[in-house]
Design brief:
The chain is about 75% helix and about 0% strand. It has about 170 residues and is an all-alpha fold.
Length: about 170
């Protein structure tokens, strides 16, 4: 990054360079895209400047938040529309499913994260075999919603059982 910035005659603080490297997950092509997006947002760069993500990445993050907030057929239809919009804007389906998995897994515990990783790999493989990418993306989201909702119900049931076992006379 530093050598690219020198060639482009840009000043790049070391702290901001480290932020870009972390955000890009050490992928040089992605780092250059993030650097370019950040330059459009604000130049000259500052050490405390936030790294600007690509629009489609922010959109996938929004989709993930929506999925985590509500697991219903109505939500699935809204998400399907958004996924279709990403596909029509030439974002590859395998990239969408990887980014969606990354966004969803950041808030999950290990049991759900493991199941989601299995499902993501399964549907990513199906993407390669099938012709309609939207079907496989929608199936992944539906499977995740079902798994996550089941997990939430089990957690609430477990908490309810713990409350029933608790007795004030124990103190």
């Amino acid at each position: 990054l530093a050598s690219v910035c020198r060639r482009e005659q840009l000043q790049l603080p070391a702290e901001f360079s480290a932020k870009v490297a972390r955000a890009s997950e050490r992928n040089m092509r992605r780092a250059l895209l993030l650097l370019e997006a950040s330059r459009v947002q604000q130049y000259p760069f500052t050490a405390d400047q936030d790294v600007q993500l690509a629009d489609w990445e922010r959109y996938v993050s929004q989709i993930a938040r929506e999925i985590l907030a509500e697991q219903s057929p109505q939500c699935l239809m809204r998400v399907r529309t958004k996924l279709y919009e990403l596909l029509t804007n030439c974002i590859p389906a395998d990239v969408i499913i990887k980014r969606l998995e990354h966004e969803l897994s950041s808030t999950l515990d290990d049991t759900v994260r493991h199941k989601m990783a299995q499902d993501a790999a399964f549907y990513e493989h199906r993407l390669c075999l099938g012709s309609k990418e939207i079907y496989h993306l929608e199936s992944f989201v539906a499977r995740f919603m079902a798994t996550y909702k089941t997990h939430l119900c089990e957690q609430s049931q477990m908490l309810a059982n713990m409350d029933m076992d608790f007795d004030d006379d124990d103190f």
